[in-house]
Amino acid sequence: MNSKNNNCVRITIPLGTYEQFEDSILEIEELLTYFKKLRRSPYSQADKITLAKGSVRISSRCLKSKANGFDNHLYGNGSYKGAV
Description:
The protein is mostly helical. 55% of the residues lie in helices and 0% in strands. α1 packs antiparallel against α2 (45-67). The protein is elongated. The chain starts with 17 loop residues before the first helix and ends in a 17-residue tail after the last helix. The model has no long low-confidence stretch (mean pLDDT 85).
């Protein structure tokens, strides 16, 4: 895998409805809170980056699943209107 692809993680933020807007705010606030805790943690810089990337992927999947009508991010296919 190209190392250039390992340095960026996308988050899809569905904004088709006001409910999705509200869900996005809550999810982004939770993600920011986690990032702040992670910054203060005793983990190495490399571990912090790895954990941050994983949390962004989970947040993106949660938002897409909620937008697709699922309450749990474990359901659905992880796509929202073709964005994976």
